[in-house]
Amino acid sequence: MTDWTKDYNERGYSFPFRLFDTNRANQYRASLEKIETGYAPDLVKLAIGHANSLIPFVDEITRSEEILSPIREILGPNLLVWNSSFFIKEPHSTEFISWHQDLTYWGLTDSHEVTAWVALSEASVQSGCMKFIPESHKGSIVEHRDTFAKNNLLSRGQELAVDVNEEDAVDVVLQPGEMSLHHGQVFHGSNANQSNDRRIGLAIRYITPDMQQTIDEKTDAKLVAGVDEYHHFNLSDKPHDLLTHEDIATVKHDIAIKEKFLMAGTDRKKHC
Asked: For the chain, what is the mean pLDDT?
């Protein structure tokens, strides 16, 4: 076990990891922003929320050896991507992410999950970088409350129903092309973007194939490393191209299934 994996197991997170240089990060950002200006808002929203299923360059990132190597050190050789999505804060906006734990509403049976958060722009304290509470992953999922706050980027505006000592928080400062890794139960959130640039991050959720949903129906996942001997998920292929009709139909079918746990206990639909 390497020193950083020991730190990860102890604290529940590790950063920074350099994935690619700034020029490549800028190229990916330009590709994303071309999509944002070139498609209807509903398709852009769908692509941002289900990026690796609808955008080929995002699928490429999720399969890169630079990102898979550290994930393997934590989860082992067999890896699925359960979902990936962009979290974008516009400059001088009020959008934030409340303190929460990722696995709260995902309807998964265990915690064999790691989120890789890849910066395509600078993630600074001023721009609203993520914050982690060290060692908060060691317990279980705690109670959350739903706010559905308009400026909260989370689907339910969910927030921890327990007090968090902000003085314990660690700022996850990243440069374009760097990433952080965090456990699905670690307390984390982020403030509003007070900078002059957009804050753009890609969150990729890796799980092991032994995980499964808590409902009978299978949801989609992509096998990105090793083998799947469990068959708990529908293994979907790489996107055929950018926002194809076939891939969009697959994503919408998966959304309909996931709403059964992502929005459980509410009368609302998942923000796509």
From this structure: 92
